[in-house]
Design brief:
By secondary structure, this protein is of the alpha+beta class. Strands 1, 2, 3, 4, 5, 6, 9, 10, 11, 12, 13, 14 and 15 form a 13-stranded antiparallel sheet that branches. 22% of the residues lie in helices and 33% in strands.
Length: 392
C-alpha cells in the first residue's frame, strides 16, 4: 500500500503543452449558436456496461494468468506478496496487456463518451510559467447496420495563472473548439469566443470545475473528415503492437498516453488489484529510459506536444521511484476503461512562432468514461447542428 500511496502522490500538476494548441475564435465572424447542455452529461459514469467487450476474454485470461502466479506468493497475512520478483514480473506483464486491450477495445465499440480534465504547469526557459486547464468531451457513435456514424468533440483550454512574460501571452493560449461529424461524414467546426471562456461550475461527479464558452460557427464547415467506423479487428498482441507503431505518426491510433505500452520492458513496476466483483485497478510506473529510446513512443510524444526538436520524459533524480510517467487505471470486469489517470513530466524544445525555447511540463490527465444510451445520445447535438446549417 505504501507504494500505491507514493505513486498516487506523484499525480500532481499538469498541462500538455499549451503552446501547441490553436487560439480560439480570433475574428468571431460566425453565427452565434447555443450548445445543448441538459445538466446531466456524463450522468452514468458509475453504471457498468452491460455488453461484452471485444477483448473481454483476453482480459480475463490475463487476470487468470496473473492470479496463478500471485497465488503462489503470499505474505503471512495471506495477502499477495507484491515485492516478490515473480509477482512483480507477472504484474508488469499483466498491466501492459490490460492497458493495451482496454485502449483497443474502443476501436470496436458501437458508442462511447469520455470526459478528460488536464491541469498543470509548463515552464519555459527565459519566458516564464503557466498553469492551465484543458478539458475534452468526446462522444462517438460508430457506423453500424442500425446507425450512421457521428462525433461530437469539444475542447476548451484556459490559463489559470502565469509568471514572467507568460502573463502577457496567456490570452493567446486560451481556446475553445467543437468538431462535429454527422451522417454525411463531413466535419463542422464551432469556435468559442476567447473572452467568454470561463469556469461554468463545479461538477461533483467529475471532481472538477467544468469549462464553458460562448460559441459561433467556424471556418471548417462541411469539409471532408474521418469516417466514424470501427477499426480493424486485431486479434493478437503482436498485431496491436504493430498497429501502435504504424499509427504513431498520424494521430489516429487508439493507444492512450503517447506510449508504446507493448515495447519490451517498458513497464518498470506495476501493482494489480482485482475486486470481489472482478473490477480491475492497476498502478503502472513506466520506465522512461526505455520509452525515450522507443521510436513509436517518441514520435507520439513529439506530435502530441507540438515539438519537432528533442523531447523526452524526465525522471526525478532525487526519487528513483518517480520515473516521470505514471499510469493509474480502473477497468470494468469486461475490460473497458472506467477511468484512467496519466501523470507525466517531459522536457524539450517547443515550436513557437517567435522562437523554439526549451521547456518542461508536469501534467496530469484524468479521464472518465460512460457507455450508456443516455450519455451517448447524439440527438440534441444533431438538432443543434441542423439549426446551425440552416441559419449560418
Amino acid at each position: 500500500m505504501k507504494k500505491i500511496v507514493k505513486a498516487l502522490a506523484f499525480i500532481v500538476a499538469p498541462v500538455i503543452a499549451i503552446f501547441s494548441f490553436f487560439t480560439g475564435c480570433k475574428g468571431c465572424k460566425g453565427t452565434r449558436v447555443t450548445i445543448p447542455d441538459n445538466g446531466e452529461f456524463m450522468r452514468d459514469i458509475d453504471v457498468a456496461p452491460d455488453f461484452e467487450a471485444y477483448y473481454e476474454a483476453q482480459t480475463k485470461q490475463v487476470i487468470a494468468e496473473y492470479k496463478a502466479v500471485a497465488s503462489r506468493h503470499l505474505t503471512e497475512d495471506g495477502e499477495i506478496d507484491t515485492e516478490n520478483a515473480e509477482v512483480v514480473a507477472a504484474a508488469n506483464s499483466a498491466a501492459a496487456k490490460l492497458y493495451a486491450y482496454a485502449c483497443y477495445n474502443e476501436s470496436q465499440l458501437d458508442k462511447f463518451v469520455y470526459f478528460s480534465n488536464q491541469t498543470g504547469t509548463t515552464d519555459i526557459s527565459g519566458i516564464g510559467a503557466a498553469t492551465a486547464d484543458r478539458q475534452e468531451y468526446y462522444l462517438r457513435v460508430n457506423e453500424t447496420e442500425q446507425t450512421c456514424g457521428y462525433r461530437f468533440h469539444r475542447t476548451i483550454k484556459k490559463v489559470k495563472e502565469s509568471t514572467g512574460t507568460m502573463g502577457t501571452w496567456k490570452g493567446l493560449f486560451e481556446s475553445a473548439r467543437i468538431r462535429m461529424t454527422d451522417k454525411t461524414d463531413l466535419l463542422y467546426r464551432f469556435e468559442g469566443e476567447g473572452s467568454s471562456i470561463r469556469y461554468g461550475g463545479y461538477n461533483d461527479d467529475l471532481s472538477c470545475n467544468v469549462l464553458a464558452a460562448d460559441w459561433r460557427t467556424g471556418d471548417d464547415w462541411g469539409v471532408s473528415d474521418v469516417i466514424m467506423k470501427k477499426g480493424a479487428k486485431l486479434n493478437t498482441l503482436e498485431e496491436i503492437e504493430a498497429d501502435i507503431q504504424a499509427q504513431a505518426g498520424n494521430g489516429n491510433g487508439y493507444i492512450h498516453g503517447n506510449i508504446n505500452i507493448l515495447a519490451d520492458n517498458i513497464v518498470k513496476n506495476a501493482t494489480v488489484f482485482v475486486d470481489d466483483d472482478e473490477s480491475i485497478f492497476v498502478v503502472m510506473s513506466i520506465d522512461t529510459e526505455v520509452a525515450n529510446a522507443d521510436q513509436a513512443s517518441m514520435t507520439m510524444l513529439k506530435n502530441a506536444n507540438g515539438t519537432s526538436g528533442n523531447c523526452n520524459w524526465k525522471s526525478a533524480p532525487e526519487d528513483p521511484e518517480d520515473t516521470g510517467l505514471l499510469i493509474v487505471f480502473f477497468l470494468w470486469p469486461n475490460g473497458l476503461f472506467k477511468t484512467y489517470t496519466i501523470a507525466e513530466r517531459w522536457e524539450g524544445k517547443m515550436d513557437l512562432k517567435i522562437a523554439k525555447p526549451t521547456g518542461t511540463a508536469d501534467s496530469q490527465t484524468n479521464v472518465v468514461y460512460s457507455y450508456s444510451d443516455h450519455d451517448c445520445d447524439m440527438t440534441a447535438y444533431l438538432e443543434m447542428l441542423e439549426h446551425a446549417k440552416n441559419n449560418r
